[in-house]
Write a structure and sequence with these properties.
mainly alpha; 2 helices; about 0% strand
Length: about 50
Amino acid sequence: MDTLNPGLAWRKREDQTVPRKTYSEEFRRDAVELYRSTPGANVVGDAADFA
């Protein structure tokens, strides 16, 4: 963090890229089906279950 210019701390650094996860089509279909078939489900809670 740049302590002399704290505003720069919020800028994205080019050297800090995080690889994006890729999921199979089967996994995606299963996740959507689980979400749709679970009463009271929410995206945040289900995402935590799959992580």
